[in-house]
Amino acid sequence: MNFQAAFRALGVPVGCTERELRRAFKRQALRYHPDRNGSQTATAKMAELNNAYAVAHKHLRSSGEPQLEPQPEPQPEPQPTQERPRRSQRSRRTAHNDTARRSRQTTHTYRSIKVNDLEVQFRRQRVYVNGELTRDYSRASENQTLRVVRGQTIVLHRTHVGEVEIHGGTLHVNADLVGDVTVHDGHLIIEDASFIGDVVLHGNSFFRLNNGCHVGRKVYR
What we know:
By secondary structure, the protein is α/β, with parallel strands linked by helices. Among the domains are: 3-62, Orthogonal Bundle (Helix Hairpins), CATH 1.10.287.110; 141-220, no CATH class. Helix content is 29%, strand content 31%. The strands form 4 sheets. A 5-stranded parallel β-sheet has the order 5-8-11-14-17, with no helix packed on it.
């Protein structure tokens, strides 16, 4: 059997690769093997296929340039992952503390007011004038809103830190007052005390300073 007849018997072209030749022989052998095919010609057909495979394989090996199977493209080698330097637990804790301290410093600043050549800053219950601590109200009355209703008169003898709302009543301040005051048809009188904050007057409201000091804005609405 010549090599052309061998390739025809296997059902592949002459210019096929060794891999294609093996697949074709395996496909034909599974079809005509005597254990799978009960026909009388199965044994003779299997012998023909063995002979054809031997001739075709010899032809591929003896050809001028052997048929090479396609090689997979080379894959780039993975680059080693550079691990980030780990910070020590102490450095992480220090960074966290610095961030928390900056956050507290930011939230502590209540307001900054410029009065003539004075720069007044309110940080929670402390008052700084030109950067120097002048008042400390950390032990003053509780930081809450003081409300004065209609027909009520309140005399404040203790330092108050917080907002004040006056609705038709009267508030006499004989101690320091730190916080914004809103007056609706009422009276606010500061006597020999310091008032640090804004005062907003609505309607027929009255605001008076008797030997007192006010640092802030006065707004009429």
